[in-house]
TrEMBL record:
Residue ranges annotated for the PBP domain, each copy included: 26-262
Name the UniProt record assigns to this protein: Phosphate transport system substrate-binding protein
Organism whose genome encodes this protein: Halpernia humi
Record's keyword annotation contains Signal: yes
SUPFAM superfamilies (alphabetical): Periplasmic binding protein-like II (SSF53850)
Key words of the record: Signal
Entries under InterPro entries matching the protein: PBP_domain (IPR024370), Phosphate_ABC_transporter (IPR050811)
Length: 289
């Protein structure tokens, strides 16, 4: 009996050790995770993803685009490790995050973006006022066109006016690229898209979209504001928004490693090259010899 008990104890110990060794926890230099973001932020997130994996070749970061609301739900369900958000969460969403994720609320801000209003190059319109946008979103004419329901652009503009998306009147043309290409057919319509969709200075896709549209300055309180980086940095452009990461990762793994990279100097240089405003700015020091 003594030997049988000892054999059973050793067997159970070996099984437990085997289970522990089979479970590989990722770290910032090794592992495989999924990141999700709204299609509006595809360009900047893709650039950060590519840069991080180039620096850490033993990592695999899959990036999937989904509507912003669905990204947040996937984070709560542990289907995605990291998501990008642009609007403030409601009290109910914050409560759901606190209860289901169980981590301290720490949004990692990494870029200044904006919702911009565009018309075809052929349009005679040269600007749009803040009040006009508000008025149009209450009009049955539905002259403001968004890239989809539950999209980050629609959610953010609705929140800006302290309303729910369902309370607004608007048109839909699915997808930013499709919206820009179709806008010429609707001369009275005004597209609402993300700055990041056209901000990459030398990106071929962004260049093609820029060639088709005019970006309208937004007039508010008698002043006209373009979505320039200076106006975004100073939060003066009325529809400036800050992009931030949320994670459900309770340890310093690949998800938090990617977030830290994106918020530090190298990641912020990537954000800048994407034509967005880095959230964390750094002084450039030059050593003279």
């Amino acid at each position: 009996m003594k030997y049988n008990f000892l054999f059973l104890f050793v067997l159970l110990l070996n099984m437990n050790c085997s289970k522990k060794s089979d479970k590989v926890i990722d770290n910032p230099q090794l592992g495989h995770i999924l990141i999700e973001a709204d299609p509006s932020f595809k360009s900047v997130v893709s650039a950060l993803q590519e840069s991080y994996m180039n620096l850490n070749p033993k990592t695999t970061i899959d990036f999937v685009t989904k509507k912003e609301d669905l990204c947040f739900l996937d984070l709560l369900k542990n289907k995605a490790r990291v998501v990008v958000m642009s609007r403030e969460l409601s009290k109910e969403e914050r409560a759901a995050y606190d209860s289901q994720v169980g981590l301290k609320w720490e949004p990692a801000k990494f870029a200044g973006d904006a919702v911009i209003f565009v018309v075809p190059k052929s349009s005679s319109r040269t600007s749009i006022s803040y009040q006009e946008i508000r008025k149009e979103l209450d009009s049955e004419d539905k002259n403001i066109v968004f890239d989809g329901t539950n999209s980050s652009n629609l959610n953010f503009v609705a929140q800006k006016f302290s309303k729910k998306p369902a309370d607004l009147k608007f048109s839909i043309i699915s997808g930013t690229t499709n919206l820009v290409h179709q806008l010429e057919k609707y001369p009275d319509k005004i597209g609402a898209i993300s700055l990041n969709a056209i901000s990459r200075p030398y990106g071929s896709d962004a260049e093609k979209l820029r060639a088709l549209i005019k970006v309208l300055p937004v007039v508010k309180d008698g002043k006209s504001y373009n979505p320039s980086l200076n106006n975004i940095k100073d939060m003066e452009y009325p529809f400036t928004r800050i992009l931030y990461f949320l994670t459900n990762e309770p340890y310093y793994g690949l998800g938090n490693g990617f977030i830290r990279f994106s918020c530090t100097q190298l990641g912020q240089l990537v954000v800048e090259k994407e034509g967005l405003q880095p959230y964390n700015t750094y002084k450039r020091e030059v050593q003279m010899r």
